[in-house]
Design goal:
- The chain has helices at 2-12, 47-59, 110-119, 135-141, 183-186, 202-219, 239-245, 274-292, and strands at residues 18-22, 38-44, 64-67, 73-75, 80-87, 94-98, 101-105, 122-123, 144-145, 148-149, 154-160, 166-170, 176-177, 180-181, 189-196, 198-199, 252-253, 256-258, 266-268, 301-303.
- The chain folds into three domains: 2-87, Uridine Diphospho-n-acetylenolpyruvylglucosamine Reductase, domain 2; 93-218, Uridine Diphospho-n-acetylenolpyruvylglucosamine Reductase, domain 3 (2-Layer Sandwich), CATH 3.30.465; 222-303, Uridine Diphospho-n-acetylenolpyruvylglucosamine Reductase, domain 1.
- The model has no long low-confidence stretch (mean pLDDT 96).
- The protein is α+β, with helices and mostly antiparallel strands.
- The strands form seven sheets. A five-stranded antiparallel β-sheet has the order 6-7-15-11-12, covered by helices on one side. A four-stranded mixed β-sheet has the order 1-2-5-3, covered by helices on one side. Strands 17-18-19 form a three-stranded antiparallel β-sheet.
- It is built from eight helices and 20 strands.
- Bound molecules: flavin-adenine dinucleotide (FAD).
- Flavin-adenine dinucleotide binds next to strand 3, helix 4, strand 9 and strand 15.
């Protein structure tokens, strides 16, 4: 794989629109601060370069994945034997289109999106405060909290397929569900998203932001490296409640610990490994299945 990658890398060494970090350690690019090396981390500034790059990767049969803030992924301690691509430059910008609509690049941090909406007197995104992801990652998994989901505000999405074709997808042609979307199956890269919000008094938006931030501080272990909830909620119940009822709060393996504040968070208390986290997750899943006959499905994605 390294040989194949060297041939691809050579073609882009002088390009100002593609920044390559060879042998990047993923623990520096994920919120869990866990993960081994990948062949390279590639930051792409323009969609045109991304098109040619993806075609090259396809020609050479080189595996790749797209990364936002790495706040919903667990990268294995051995890393991932491929290339990790991030969107920046023209796909990390925001524009107010008028008529309560914002166009946002997929690489924009959700915290910036929340502030941008506030600065234009647009309400709706307050529930996203404290979610440390990007627009692309959030749309792909239909991020949600406090009874709301990002898909409620999507109007259209600009995507690129694995052949480099770009096109707009209307909201009604995409299937969004609890922590997922049909975009996953279609294997498309989200480049830009047009959101449709509503007019709101800035004071009211600020109050909502404060309220949601306080709730997160009260009920989540903010401050510790994590990837948020590790399991999806099973139908009609909460994974956190089940794990807490089983008495697993605070259990640890190595430096990975089931949070004492929120039982569906596994925190990294220092130098936790992906192995530690997976061990805890497998153990919880087995015990819950045995005691309650409930299967807990991963919310986080494992890269290996
Ligand atoms: C403290 C904390 C709190 C959290 N709270 C919440 C919460 O309330 N609700 C919630 O839903 N989640 C929550 N999360 C999880 C996570 O932050 C969100 O799911 C977030 O939306 C993931 O975005 P990301 O950019 O980090 O995606 P990543 O983790 O980088 O990627 C997630 C998936 O999206 C794909 N992806 C990323 N960008 C693109 C793109 N441009 N095109 C196509 N696919 C792409 C990746 O390949 C991967 O499959 C929390 C996490 C933490 C650490």
């Amino acid at each position: 794989m390294q040989e194949k990658w060297k041939s691809i890398e050579k073609e882009y060494t002088d390009s100002p629109d593609l920044i390559i970090t060879p042998q990047a350690e993923m623990k520096f690019y994920t919120t869990w601060k866990i993960g081994g090396r990948v062949i390279a981390l590639v930051d792409v500034l323009k969609s045109t370069i991304l098109q040619s790059f993806l075609l090259k990767m396809k020609d050479f049969n080189c595996p790749w994945k797209i990364l936002g803030r790495g706040s919903n992924v667990l990268v294995h301690d051995h890393g991932f034997p491929g290339v990790v691509v991030r969107l920046t430059g023209e796909n990390a910008e925001m524009k107010y289109l008028g008529n309560h609509r914002i166009e946002s690049g997929a690489g924009v941090a959700l915290s910036h999106l929340v502030s941008f909406a506030l600065s234009h007197g647009l309400g709706g995104f307050e529930f996203l405060v404290g979610v440390p992801g990007t627009v692309g990652g959030a749309v792909r998994i239909n991020a949600g909290c406090f009874g709301q989901e990002i898909s409620h505000f999507i109007h259209e999405i600009l995507v690129m397929d694995t052949n480099g074709h770009i096109g707009w997808l209307k909201r009604e042609n995409i299937d969004f569900f609890y922590r997922g979307s049909s975009l996953e199956k279609e294997k498309v890269i989200i480049l830009k998203v047009i959101f449709s919000l509503f007019s709101e008094k800035p004071e009211c938006i600020r109050n909502n932001v404060r309220r949601y931030s306080l709730l997160r501080k009260q009920f989540q272990p903010v401050g510790w490296p994590s990837a948020g909830c590790v399991f999806k909620n099973p139908p009609g119940d909460y994974a956190a409640r089940i794990i807490e009822q089983m008495g697993f709060k605070g259990l640890r393996t190595g430096f990975a610990q089931i949070s004492e504040k929120h039982s569906n968070f596994i925190i990294n208390r220092g130098s936790a490994t992906a192995h530690d986290v997976m061990y805890l997750m497998d153990w919880i899943r087995k015990e819950v299945q045995r005691e309650r006959n409930i299967f807990l499905e991963n919310e986080i994605e494992v890269w290996q």
